[in-house]
Write a structure and sequence with these properties.
Blueprint lengths: L12 H23 L3 H28 L5 H25 L3 H34 L5
Helix pairs in contact: 1-2, 1-4, 2-3, 2-4, 3-4
């Protein structure tokens, strides 16, 4: 999956690195689910996602403010929705343990996030950033 997506979306290395790390985690979880040994991976993923969401969303937020992004509020809502998904995932992990069912659900959550947010919302955001950096032609 990671090889199929452009993980160099932004002109910001920190955010690009976050995207690459997320895609690596998705690949790792997806492979573990297919091989039937996802229990360790799902536990590690839970910690990764908490760190990812905090660091990544803060970095994107700073860029949106810096570039006066007009879709900041909807973009932030998507971030909050993903954080809510992460919280639910973490609670299920604590209650039920690292089950295959939970790992499959996590794979779906990550895939949806990558396709709908990273490949759509983030791409739209970057297009705005780049447009703001283009010199005006008189």
């Amino acid at each position: 999956m990671a090889r199929q997506l452009d993980v160099n979306l932004l002109f910001n290395e920190e955010v690009d690195q976050h995207h690459r790390a997320l895609l690596e985690q998705y690949d790792k979880l997806s492979e573990a689910v297919q091989q039937g040994n996802s229990s360790t991976v799902i536990t590690q993923l839970s910690g990764f996602l908490c760190d990812y969401s905090s660091e990544h969303f803060d970095a994107e937020d700073k860029l949106m403010v810096q570039h006066c992004y007009p879709q900041t509020d909807p973009h932030r809502r998507e971030h909050r929705d993903f954080e809510r998904d992460i919280t639910k995932l973490k609670k299920k992990l604590e209650l039920e343990g690292p089950t295959r069912k939970l790992a499959v659900a996590a794979t779906g959550i990550l895939l949806r996030w990558i396709v709908q947010h990273v490949n759509k919302s983030d791409v739209d955001m970057v297009a705005h950033f780049r447009k703001c950096q283009e010199p005006e032609i008189s």
